[in-house]
Design brief:
The chain is α+β, with helices and mostly antiparallel strands. The chain has one domain. It is built from two helices and twelve strands, in the order αβββαβββββββββ. Strand 8 and strand 9 form a beta hairpin. The radius of gyration is 20 Å and the shape is globular. The two termini are 26 Å apart.
Length: 225
């Protein structure tokens, strides 16, 4: 496999550190709320335990591109990809490191799932022609004793079919995860997607910085430069 460019390797590690800090703060807060009881909840009805206890989650960030010098590029924004230019996505597989249902002394979801094999799939749809897109190579791995129970991956996107000059291809990308062992039926898909692009102030529309999007697929465009 080709190496991740150094510029993006630093970003990759920064995201890893961010998720570790968020996980530590999240577990601490949830355990505190659990001690106070349901009266402290803002949610109408718990799903499992209180606060609701998620076993597993998957998050995706991207696309990311390095920045090149004119006229060759690549150029920002990263979600606008010139045909043949490299682009990358980051994927974060998370298991809850806190005891199940926040009850001290019980094993965590991280421990219960440890050693189980799983697969992450990237489903791509070409919206321009409403056809199957060029799916990325899936991730097959085993849950391990990763720090804060976060396992991180990156994938290079493409190769893309060559688009027509003047008619770019628009794509949607969805990410799913499945534990491929019958004894542990766990699956899901990414509902939070991080868009790293910055859309500057224009025609009195406000700036929009990098942000998380909820229940929207990753969307990007490939054009013929």
């Amino acid at each position: 496999m080709a190496e991740l460019p150094q510029e993006l390797q630093q970003q990759f590690e920064e995201y890893q550190d961010m998720f570790k800090r968020r996980t530590d703060a999240y577990v601490k807060k949830a355990m505190e709320l659990n001690k106070k009881g349901p009266s402290a909840s803002r949610i109408g009805e718990p799903i499992s335990g209180w606060p609701p206890y998620p076993w597993i989650n998957i998050l995706v960030a991207g696309p990311f591109q390095t920045v090149g010098a004119p006229p060759s590029g690549p150029f920002k924004p990263s979600k606008i990809i010139a045909y043949r230019d490299p682009a990358y996505i980051f994927t974060f597989v998370w298991r809850n490191p806190a005891p199940i249902n926040w009850i001290p002394g019980t094993p965590s979801a991280c421990q219960v799932l440890n050693g189980r094999k799983f697969q992450v799939n990237f489903e791509v749809v070409n919206l321009t022609y409403v056809t199957q897109g060029p799916d990325l190579r899936e991730i097959q791995d085993t849950f391990s004793n990763a720090p804060q129970c976060i396992q991180m991956y990156w994938r290079r996107m493409g190769p893309f079919p060559e688009p027509q000059q003047g008619k770019p291809d628009l794509y949607d990308l969805h990410t799913t995860i499945d534990v491929i062992e019958h004894e542990q039926p766990v699956a899901g898909f990414a509902t939070w997607i991080f868009d790293p692009d910055y859309d500057p102030h224009w025609l009195f529309f406000p700036d929009v910085g990098p942000h998380w999007q909820y229940e929207r697929p990753m969307q990007y465009m490939v054009y013929q430069r």
